[in-house]
Amino acid sequence: MNTTKLHQILIPVDFSPSGECALEYGAYLASKFNANLILLHILEGAHKYPHDWFNDTNLLTNPVSIKIKATKKLNEYATTIAKKYGIHVQYIYSTGNPAQRITETVHEQNIDLIVMGTHGANGFEEFFMGSNAHKVVTLSPCPVITIREGFSPSEIKSIVLPIDESLHSRQKVNDILPLAAQCHAVIHILGLLKGIDETDLAKLNIKLDTVEDAVKKAGVIYTREVLHTDNIALAAMKYAEDIHAEMLSTMTDHESHLTGMFMGAFAQQIVNHSKVPVLSIKPMRGNYAYPRQTE
């Protein structure tokens, strides 16, 4: 069985609390896989930066002064993280559209995983991907972990693997197994079924059997449960919170890759509202498969 190997992890840095949570989370994963960590900061509007950075507020409108301050902060992050986790850390300072530059950097640096903070979305952004994190999840050719502000970084001890009736639901397994094995985490296989139809339940259990077999072969500890629910996204999020999971996985849909704007309803709701870090994975089908490194 091929297993995904993380060599290069990218963390977009915006100096926000959620961004710092993502930094710690990504550094932990890098240490587990002995991966390189790349910090990326993209110059944005002056209002995005902490005002206490500058004694003279006029400097907030000066791109040169912002670059000097941001680069100094990036260097501090890199030095602290490298010493704490014993990993190689580098940083990149860039300009341009944040989501576009992030996806370009994925190709330029051969990135295997993005870890980034998100502030969630409500209202209009619930259906139209307006924030940088949502655009990246939609457009990125590699998996993306999004982390909400307020999440306390810790070891990854439990990962929720939701399996529903969708065609590509099982494809998450190949990405989750190496993460769980390397972190010595428990995989919680969660079957999600709308309604109580016995035929549908039988079909779902066939899927769960194949997932369970793969997890067993990988030697990973697991649990298995089926929930009947009207809203599978809410059920998955609540389950992840109830067991204090450190990761919840989801698949993005083909529609998002075609339009660049919309995500499937399940993934969209999970990314927007989950209090648990979310691993979003592109379906591996035809032209939608992203390149992976295996060993």
Helical coverage, percent range: 25-40%
Tally of distinct domains: 2
Order of helices and strands: EHEHEHEHEEHEHEHEHHE
- N/C terminus separation: 10 Å
What CATH first level of the largest domain would be assigned? Alpha Beta
What characteristic shape results from the CA principal axes? elongated
Beta-strand fraction estimate: 15-25%
Walk me through the topology.
Layout: E1 8-12, H1 17-33, E2 36-42, H2 63-85, E3 89-94, H3 98-108, E4 113-118, H4 132-139, E5 144-148, E6 158-163, H5 173-183, E7 186-193, H6 198-217, E8 222-228, H7 232-242, E9 247-251, H8 254-259, H9 265-273, E10 278-281
Short description:
With 295 residues, the protein is of the alpha/beta class.
Structural overview:
The chain has 295 residues and is an alpha/beta fold. The chain has two domains: 8-148, HUPs (Rossmann fold); 158-288, Rossmann fold (3-Layer(aba) Sandwich). Helices cover 39% and strands 20% of the residues. It is built from nine helices and ten strands. The protein has helices at residues 17-33, 63-85, 98-108, 132-139, 173-183, 198-217, 232-242, 254-259, 265-273, and strands at residues 8-12, 36-42, 89-94, 113-118, 144-148, 158-163, 186-193, 222-228, 247-251, 278-281. It has a ten-stranded mixed sheet, with helices on both faces. Helix 5 (173-183) links the parallel strand 6 and strand 7. The protein starts with 7 loop residues before the first strand and ends in a 14-residue tail after the last strand. Mean pLDDT is 82; it is low at 121-130, 254-263 and 285-295.
